[in-house]
Amino acid sequence: MVPACSPESQTLKKPPKSTNFMKATLNSVKIHISSHPRFWLFVAFLWVQALIISIARNPPPCFPDRSAAVPSPISVRYVPIHDDAVSNATTTPEAPPAQYTDECPSGRVFAYDLPSAFNRDLIVPNCTDLDPWNWECGIISNHGYGRAATELRRILPEDLHKSWYHTNQFTLEVLFHHRVLKHKCRTLDPELATAFYIPFYAGLAVGKQLWGNDTSARDRHCKLMLRWVKNQSYWKKFNGSDHFMTIGRITWDFRRLTDPGKSWGSSFLNMPSMQKVTRFIVEKYPGDEMDVSVPYPTGFHPKTRDSLIEWQSFVRDYKRSALFSFIGTDRNWGSNDLRRFLMDYCRRESGSCRAVDCAVSDCPTNSSVSLKPLLESEFCLQPKGDSFTSKAVFECMVAGAVPVFFLKTAFEQYEWFLPGEPESYSVYIDQEEVRNGTKSVKEVLMRYSKDEIQKKREKVIETIPRIIYSKPNGGIKSFKDAFDIALDGALERIKEEKEWADFL
């Protein structure tokens, strides 16, 4: 029973309007409509707007409807967690987390549990140290970070050496896999996932076959992995466009052409099923938007923000006695190769340049061989090697030196991580002008004033957090590193694409 004083009771007590009044009102409306034909155009306009809104809220059959329930397929296996994240089955189950939260504004990531043949089995199990003659050595230890670089205690003060490791340049796939499994926005429920991570170690699978003549062997693991993942219902919903993976070798190792004369590498990235998958790769193909360049792993992996700040202060205040340095490895360079030219030039300019030839020096197993000259130099020379960039670019910047590039194509890489204005953190010298002698590297670098060099170095030091991979399991990390930037970017990109598909 409704109380007499309530608004409801007062509404009920209102007398009905008279019938004569209603008839008069209807006649007035009819006269108004007949004398104003534009009224019908206005009604038609409102009807079209309502139809558009209805279509936008209900996707047509050609787009997947994410609101529909999808049963969990038996073939999708969950990645086992061997840490404290495993919940106790005897405790009261908590409500499932929301897909989007303040902590995970772009959504959550689900990691497939691929058969071990596609990741763990590809790692050499008995190679625990870096071997300069075996590119696979050092990849497995310490979740991809490598063993501690304890030899650096001789050149670094206090405990700064504790943030340094012997990290193999091909370890990106292992490192990303470990970080995804530990990430705060990882979900074990694929129904809550915005993005799906494929932990396939493509660089290791293809790298083992690169120097053989069997091109089909280079594609074997890639084809088998795609066959497996394409059978998952979550791949089928968006045809893989909400999936991403990491590749630890340059893009050119995965784009073998059909021309018989172009026999290098795998055809993995040319396969139709890979055309919508986002892949983080150490060097991208500039014409493919699904390739996203991420920094090569260096040996610097701070565990806390304090460790990072301490390192930044150290490299900022370091007394640099050399103008520039060049660190490289002799790989049967041709007589006209720029790297050989610069190595010879650096040796001749020994008063201004620190030269390190890793073919005769112990660079892989002794980090001080390359780190000390970089710390002593204002600039470091970064010519093209096997590809446009290399791990040396990031080792240079982590040491607080300003990179000197000789090809502008190097600036097309790493847009998510490096400053947008190349001149703010680097120097460009045209390689042809160096070769033909019209420009001297030393003279170009000496034209920069101390203030100009300081500004560039400060920009480099400011960028260090964005180009390193921290080791957060050793402490509470309170800064975003290269992994965080990459994962956040992938989640945001995939989230926006799904929202756009829903809108259409």
TrEMBL record:
Subcellular location: Golgi apparatus membrane
Any one GO CC term of the record: Golgi membrane
Keyword match Secreted: no
Main location: Golgi
Exostosin GT47 domain ranges (all copies): 104-441
Any Pfam family the entry gives: Exostosin_GT47
GO process terms (BP): xyloglucan biosynthetic process
GO MF term list: galactosyltransferase activity
Annotated keywords: Glycosyltransferase, Golgi apparatus, Signal-anchor, Transferase, Transmembrane
Topology versus the membrane: Single-pass type II membrane protein
Family: Belongs to the glycosyltransferase 47 family.
Stated name of the protein: Glycosyltransferase 18
